[in-house]
């Protein structure tokens, strides 16, 4: 299986990339680097992709387990190297679950399955970064 993404220059430092499903995303950089901050930066998109990949797994697994949550958020942090080419050498993903009487053991199992088995983006990140994860339960 392969994917094709077409990225088109939109002027200045702005680019638009499509997705195999036809949706598009806008990329840009900050004004201090010559852009207009009109889209996500490519590196921030990598962190968003990591969270999105794992989040899709977790929600799908929790749904199959019939685990109820009222909200779910992931805070993803990346630490860049000092030298060029700058890349994330350390990444942290914090999983935050909200709800009443959260089933912590099933939630942990869902997160672990994503981290260890299903999330391909997580596996890609492990090739170049130390990936740390944590789970936070917010019972109401």
From TrEMBL:
It comes from the Bacteria. Pfam families: OsmC. Residues 19-38 are annotated as: Disordered. This is Peroxiredoxin. It comes from Aquaticitalea lipolytica. The lineage of its organism: Bacteria, Pseudomonadati, Bacteroidota, Flavobacteriia, Flavobacteriales.
